[in-house]
Amino acid sequence: MVSDAPIFGFNDARADIVRTVIDRVMLGTKDPLLALNDAAYHETKRLEGSRRAADQRELAEWQKLARGLARTSDADRRAQLRELCERYGWDVAGNFDPRVFQVATRLMPPLVTALLAPSTFASMARTPSKIISLDALADKVLVEGPLSKLQRLVRRGTAVYVPTHLSNMDSIVFGYALERAGLPPATYGAGKNLFTNPLLSFFMHNLGAYRVDRRIKHNLYKDVLKTYSCVLLERGYHSLFFPGGTRSRSGGVERRLKLGLVGSAMEAYARTLIAGQERRIFFVPATINYLITLEAETLIADFLSEAGKGRFIIDDDESTRLARVGSFMKKLLGMHGAVVIRFSEPVDPFGNRVDDDGVSHDGRGRPVDPASYVKNARGEVTIDHARDAQYTRELGEEICRAYERDTVVMATHLTAAACFARLRSSSPAADLFTVLRQREAVTIPRDDLARDAVHLRDTLLALEREGGVRVGDAIRHASGGDIVEGALRAFASYHPQPVLRSGPAGITLCDTNLLFYYQNRLAGHGLAWDVIAPPGLPRAPATTVRGAAATGGAS
Amino acid sequence: MSAPGTSQKPAVGVVGGGPWGVALALAASRAGSDVTLYSRRESSHAKAQVRTTGDYAEVARARLVVIAVPSTVAREVARALGDHLDGSHLVVHGIRGLSVDRFETVSDILRSETPVRRLGALGGPVQASELIEGRPSAMVCGSHYPEVLAAVTTAFQHSALRVYGTPDLRGLEWASALVGCLSIGVGFADQAGAGPGLLAALISRGVDEAARLAATAGADERTMLGLGGYGDLLASIRLQDRPEVVLGRALARGRTLDEAIAEAKLRVEAIALIPRIVQFAREARVPTATFDALEDILQGAGSATIIEKMFAG
Description:
heterodimer; A: 3-stranded antiparallel sheet; 15 strands; globular
């Protein structure tokens, strides 16, 4: 436990932090009428659809505010604005108790299990030593990367963790990974929907989470959030953002990010310089890789449905059904290396690699002073939003490259990619939906599939040698048969409908949607069919590995 | 930095003692900038008006550095210059080129070889001779950073030079490279006796294809259709000494590729780029009849085949 991390002083600092946020947002809001109108418009729109009494009351308040706006004086508007800022500021900050935190992290693995899989917890309770030991999950959840460097860096500056996002389990799993890696806890903005379960909410708060209500769309709320995040970073609170913004619907590794909160780091860094108290910020990309994903069925269905395109919050998926979560956890914890959290090399806010001592180095290894990037023509540090927005975009690209390099490929991803390549070659030139309709239509002889798997694994190993991906240990030396077998077991243990079915003629491809979901993990690497490239980005080339033959063997 | 406070003149460092580097140095000087030119040779034009040095450290005293060297040495110059730069510099290049293997732009090279992030490129129809003689012309600067556009405008714009800005850096770099390819076609068609109608068709169709290709590579289509693409290509019609045009003319006279290269005197990047562009277009399923025809030109096809190919699309 690293107990000198600033988060342990959060209780004392909270009022001060919230006040700073409110003052700064007030100062930055040039036109209160515009801000209030924007807020009232978006909130009215959101609340109109609701039947809940509390929402109806809130709606009435907003309508009243909107009606009165034109007549109120500027001073009154400022007062209303401040009131709103205060409400949002305190709502976001929540509460945090360091004493509970100490216990909570210690108890987390068994606690998560208890929350999610009571029967497993019961068996743990019989051997109390297991409860206070993190070893219970040690061989199930692997934590990899430059850990000792990160341990040094968090004492010299502020870490911003930016992992990939697949599942609602991510924040818990990542919090656990930090603890296992000997890194101090990080604050993060968790969706308010995760706070509805009182027990989970209690621990969320006490694991350093602040509340983000993603239903609120207006600029004032976004300003409060960004400013809150900025102030925390200025004060050295290590932070966790999921820059994908939302769980990856396709199962693919993020190639385009939502950079709002990431961008607050540029301002935070510049502000520490202006205040004469430079505090360096290190971005730490990471991948969270699951052999099986808790919400896979819902997410891919959402991806494939036209109606789902704009859906940002799913509040009725597997993660809200406790029995399903329980079964998932139980299965997950029964499998070796079922989750791999891989930390990437840390970079400064301008995309430069950082060494063990926190010194930034450019692409050719020359030391460079990060402060030089925020200076103007007269050598003064400035906050320039247009400039910082571009730095943020470039950092986003750097983070995406790190994701690609540090994606850990597992048996399910590899087997799904091999199967999907076969599925595709059985109806060449067809569009995605035609390919997906071939449920239970294709059966691959076991030996053929094993051969495809080995071929793809070798291609992955070649890509790994160029630094383009990571091959999971379970498949690194395994035979093709074992890889396929591993995937079959993993799919069958959790997904209620068969994904692959083993029969005398071979392996039948059943749930093509889920195969698509798992193969998408390799799409950005050019090793699986890439129909999920975000618009405006060139698709991954068919295969980028020199000396390797065509993708997936069967295509 | 440029001795702040001692001089109101914006300081500009220019790297490249060839005609293009000297022209840019003179243009900046004419706009009232305090110019330092890095050059390994003496230039009679430059000597009178700008300070010349053989030391990168001197050039890097200016916050704004402009690189105007042949694309073949861009990487090595960037690497050497990079030792003297930091995150506060603004670096802009005026180099036409795109790497053949992975379509790396020159700004990509600068990004990997220097610590600088605030990068930009120069393009458009402006010619070295116009800048040297002080005749009115127009130039495009592409950068994602508004302060780079502002600094270039301040340093270069004057009564005889208008600087237009675009945030589409990649688009401008792709446009410059693709204009290089299409200029071979302009030289070839002109020499082979194409009428004004055919020449116009070649240019318009070529620009259209190039715009779609650039968009596929992540650029904004409109950049190729504007001053940095279409405008730059139109200038080829009257540029008898643009190396690409010379090469195209020589090929039309039945010269072999090697002879044509010798005639152009300068290394023509487009020769290697054209087949790669054709391949890229095929992969991206963008029809590019004009570029297909250009590929045939390089392989020694006669004008009849080319017209057939060009109109096949």
